[in-house]
Amino acid sequence: MYKHILVPTDGTDLSRHAILCSLELAKAIGARVTVLRVSGKPAHLVVLGLEITDLSEETRARIRREIEDHFAWVHGEAAARGVACETRRVESEHPWKGIVETADAQGSDLIAMASYGRAGMTAKLIGSETQRVLAHSRVPVLVYR
């Protein structure tokens, strides 16, 4: 059975649901969990002829706090269930690629993720990042809806 479950998160409600379900699965089968947040590299943005390539320190601090708060919630939920859990943040130009590369690097034997994230309103049935993970992963992918 599965020993190490990788659970990507973007902080959305559906992502939180996937985390809770994955923790319950891990508890039932005795697996450990890594919850992963993939952050994109800053994009080049041109506004009125000015190129903006970096986020303000205030914005970076807010994002960092949100992720830390989310990870604190994850650790609390895992502890309440007695599940070994770590959190990890990686940077990748493409979230799906960061997920697949992390699963390979850590030896995860299952990826459990939400069917869509922040782009859910524009996604039909299943999100594009999830589709890419399904297409490129070497390990099984469990998709929560």
Concise summary:
With 145 residues, the chain is of the alpha/beta class. The protein is 43% helix and 24% strand.
Textual characterization of the structure:
This protein is of the alpha/beta class. The chain has a single domain (about 5-35, about 45-115, about 130-145), classed as HUPs (Rossmann fold, 3-Layer(aba) Sandwich). Helix content is about 45%, strand content about 25%. The protein contains 4 helices and 7 strands; from the N terminus they run βαβββαβαβαβ. It has helices spanning about 15-30, 55-80, 95-105, 130-135; strands at about 5-10, 30-40, 45, 50, 85-90, 110-115, 140-145. Strands 5-2-1-6-7 form a 5-stranded parallel sheet, sandwiched between helices. Strands 3-4 form a two-stranded antiparallel sheet. It is globular. Mean pLDDT is about 90; it is low at about 120-125.
Q: Would you report the number of β strands? A: 7
- Main β-sheet, in a few words? 5 strands, parallel
Beta-strand content: 15-25%
Residues in helices, as a percent range: 40-55%
CATH topology: Rossmann fold
Per CATH, the superfamily is HUPs
Structural class: alpha/beta
Order of helices and strands: EHEEEHEHEHE
CATH level 1 name: Alpha Beta
| Rg, Å, rounded | 16 Å
How many domains is the backbone divided into? 1
Count the helices. How many?
A: 4
For the largest sheet, list the strands in their spatial order: 5-2-1-6-7
Shape: globular
**In CATH terms, what is the architecture?**
3-Layer(aba) Sandwich
End-to-end Cα distance, whole Å, is 22 Å
Poorly predicted spans? 120-125
- Average pLDDT across residues? 88
